[in-house]
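Running this now, will post back.
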Amino acid sequence: MSEAFRALRLTKSDEGLSSEFVDMTTDELMEGDVTINVSHSTVNYKDGLAITGAAPVARISPIIPGIDFAGVVETSSHADFKTGDDVILNGFGVGETHFGGYAGCARVSGDWLVKRPQGISAAQSMGIGTAGYTAMLCVMAIENSLTDKEGEILVTGAAGGVGSVAISLLASAGYKVVASTGRASEESYLKDLGASRIIDRATLSEPSKRPLGKENYMAVVDAVGSHTLANAIAQTRYGGAVAACGLAQGADLPATVMPFILRGITLHGVDSVMAPLALRREAWARLERDLDLAKLDILSHTHALTDVPELAQAILAGQVRGRVIVDVSK
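Update: finished.
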């Protein structure tokens, strides 16, 4: 017997992109070997792009957006999952080419799921979401270059989802974190997360004529791209590492090879969408172990599913701080 649930559905037509809340049944879900009762989701920058149509993230129509969700397995024919298992999904094209998390139910391939760590609740897992999981991947990418704790680590886009979790993770590990933001009003928030000092993003976001700058940082977590990433690379000290995972300023990289060949800088590209399951499991295990959940509460706020269209507009306008938890039941 099919089950009914509420969903946010996007539809493309000659008139453009439209969104509406609809009642659906599990018979209308896409193919997959695991069906999940979804309890929570979140709003990422990519979700904002999809829902507003600001970028062609949604590749099929109609589609249920939402690149993340947490829930409980209802039925499964996958060997790794059984009814009652707590699971998380991040990426794998969900919310882009496959129905996503803004619905009461989802059906996906079990190969895309990870079991939720028991020390992290379903709501907290979406307080982390793709942004926080990506932040953990960034920390894992640069940590082999962190030979001591005397230097500073730069986090750009600091008030956003990736930046907020990265600050918390790095500060909890004992590193001095420099938070770059364009929102001076967020200084108290960022210091509560563990940032030792705040800099104005304008100091990094403008074009630079110098291929090398002062060696200010031993590592960088960048979610911004473009001139910000280029300047961050130019200010990374000898042997340092930069993890790049976003393009809020732009997809270009107006840099030179000088920092790489004269200072031995390593640039890590961090992908969260198609990351192998072994890496995903390691990242979530590390999040359970290393993330201060009290700080997660500071950087998270909960909204109803009905708020998602408005939140999509707000996140693109830079008006969302930290992480959004979506209670799919509301």
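The longest helix spans residues 122-142. More later if anyone needs it.
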